[in-house]
Amino acid sequence: MKTKIIAVVFASIALAACAADKTKVACIGDSITYGYGLQNRDVESYPAQLQKMLDESFPGQYEVRNFGNSGRGIYLDSMRGNEKRGYRYMPEHKAALEWKPDVVICNLGINDNGEYIKEYAGGRKRGQFVHDYMTLLADYVQQSPKPKFYIWTKLSPLTEGQRFYRSPEPFLMQRDLEEVARMTRARGIDMQEPLRENMDSIFAKDKIHPDASGARIIAETTFKALTEPAAEPSEIPAVFKSDKPCEVWLCAGQSNMQKGWNEFSSSPVEKERLKGELDRLAKLEIYFWDFNDGLWTRLTPQNAPRKSAFGVSFAIRRAEASGKPVAMLYVAAGGAPTESFLSEQTMCTVKGDGKPLYPSLAAIATNRHRLDQNKDFPCAWVAREYPRRRANKSEAYWWPVSKMYDNGISKLPKLPLTGILWYQGESNATTCVAPDTATDSAYQEETLRAVVNELRGGKKVPFVMVGLPKMGRPWEPYRASQKKVAEETGAIFVDTFAAGLGEMNDVHPRDKVAFADLAAKAAASVR
Prior knowledge:
Helix content: 40-55%
Largest sheet: 7 strands, mixed
Structural class: alpha/beta
CATH topology of the largest domain: Rossmann fold
Number of domains: 2
Strand content: 5-15%
CATH class of the largest domain: Alpha Beta
Mean pLDDT: 92
CATH architecture of the largest domain: 3-Layer(aba) Sandwich
Number of helices: 24
Radius of gyration: 26 Å
């Protein structure tokens, strides 16, 4: 009998030790975390499905608990009837703290939409959202050991028919959520993009709460964030971290920036042109950072033909003129519209009166649908092409609204920019349907102003804007918009049309050297 009792005691001790060894994951948040509207939230909620996924891959290593509370938010002064709405005041928050989790996954913000715009319209001090969010997380920081934070920096989308469907608040809020993640060294989680693909069916019940399939997508996205290491930035070449003078150029745009020399070297004339460029390159120190993989390459005659023909030719001329090493920060993709290079926060920027600074862009961003379903997007060719390209993961990486920003611009190496080389516009100049007509001039000017502001990042750096060349398309209005915005913003307009560049029947002029000569000359005029 004594032996049996001792065995039970040791078994209990072993179970306790096993439980103590588990990584404790606290899911704090609102009704989406809680599992509101699900038939069986104990099985279907995202924390419950996350637990199952972790058990299948890492048996006995994780314990996930659901601390969701419906209707809760961040603001500490927000009221819900006669009670404070903030999650910090809830019993679930207290219970999570007492549990001392190793990991805290936070989904909060959607219920603050109605309050958040006051920070822009003057009804609340700017920065209160960040302050109150940090106050909430500080409670967990005070515990020992301190937990690792995961924050939904892009919230679950809201579908048509929901109160805040066309509101800018969720997108403006992203910047503050990213700031909180930065300050807490948290890993940000994008819940908008994974749920957007089938959002009309996922949120069909009440336009805001996901069904069980949506909760599974949330669990899968969270599982990936928890178990896969975050991408580490590649090492910046030493020459750009030394006191040695260097130039750094952001080279961005669509296919005429993207295409490499190997696509323009079939004829004897083109082969000779390429040989001349490679001979010049061999004497120079030029580095190429590619947003597709985040890696640096020292350009050589052997690897350069696969890189941006226009961008590299421009860099050759900058290196020769300055006598300095040149770094190219390359962010370009064929067909990518300007909207792909803009953050959703920029597209949804509001003025002091709460009205949008860029009305056309705000309409596109707040639609939340993919481009092929986004009736606010003016270029039918991009909308038609997108479904086909979406099936190709490498191309889907580029095309959706803000994807070139998320996957490229936001990940640029931290180097001081010498200037920006921008060659884009074909996907924004016209409707690209028969008869192909120019897009609205107000829309054209909005996109151009926004991208100049976005890529400059608040700094006064030269912005070289390559005007659309001659071709048999109605591009005249867009060239006029490019020239007007360049004058307004102090950008350098490169008038390729006046120089006679381009080909009437080919959207991709083959002689990139002539374009590079013109752009380099324009850049040199202001330095």
